[in-house]
Amino acid sequence: MRPRALITFLALASAILAGWHYYLWARLVRDMALPEPWRDAATGTIVLLGALILFTLLARRVLPHGLVLPLTWIVFTWMGTAFLLLALLAAADLAGVLLALLPGASPLDPRWLGSSIVILATALALVALARARPAAIRVKHVDVPLNKLPAGAHGYRIAQISDLHIGPTVGQHFVEHVVARVNALESEMIVITGDLVDGSIERLGSLAAPLANLHAKDGVYFITGNHEYYSGEVDAWLDWLEARGIRVLRNERIPIGGAEGFDLAGVHDWAGGRQGNGHGTDLERALAGRDAARALVLLAHQPRLIHLAERLGVDLQLSGHTHGGQLFPFSLIVKLFQPHLAGLYSHGRARLYVNRGTGHWGPPMRLWAHSEITSIRLQVVAE
Known about the structure:
By secondary structure, the protein is α/β, with parallel strands linked by helices. The chain folds into two domains: about 130 residues, no CATH class; about 240 residues, Metallo-dependent phosphatases (Purple Acid Phosphatase, chain A, domain 2). About 45% of the residues lie in helices and about 15% in strands. The protein contains eleven helices and twelve strands. It is globular and about 75 Å long. The relative contact order is 0.14. The model has no long low-confidence stretch (mean pLDDT about 95).
């Protein structure tokens, strides 16, 4: 990041964090009229945690992964908890405004309200932490009928993982667990639909090493997500993956299963548009010269490509990116920008499946949006 861009980022992040934490302090310390020494202790804790967020985001860029890891867990857990506090307090403030419009209604006691919100947010944070553990990953079985699928490919199984986000809070143990679960499905094919890593090979290569143990009869395939480009080492990561037996689809298409099979295409993420060297989404290139009579499955990180994919004759698009919202009520915001949030959709003549994400990003939490490995079974449409 260039110095001017870094200064702008730091100024904007500091302003957002200051406003966010001031609101928490005002509602949970000032308005609750906490007595001393609790007032000073609560104030100091909120200020410290807010400052640690900015410090940790910068420290992760320069300090060794192992050194900054404990601090990262503390900060990211606080970010998730602070978001829940913010959402609950905002809902309470809105309810207070509506209550004030009712004749004869008495305002809620700030101490009772604040204490209740802290207890509820803490309980939700603990649930969300538990549901982000690798043991909480669910295998979602989905049957997808395709009009042009030949009889010989009926029942073909594809295991999909997406948005693993190997990095601060998704480590080697998490990856080993995912690899074991995926291999146990014994699918004909495994696909990884982007956002695999959040950092450099030097920092994360050892954590991602178990991916080399993925195996399927027809291969393991990968496409880039937007976070691969944030790593600053996208080409090095793609070479690293291919050296470990994972085929990277770079705006290209390959046949699967001969005459009784289908075509598999994969495109780079839009975030690579400025990267050069063949990056950026080029679906027309990936589909050039295809036999339109063959069923085609497309790997595309972001669901919004379905609009173009359907026009170009794609039968099934497999995507990720949304995490299913990851942490309620943040999912309501994500839904505004990503109408295809999670699950199976029909879009004209095409189908779209959006994986909820196998890992997590930022807070190691999931609430009403479970982590997912998808087992997709292709089916012939019954006449």
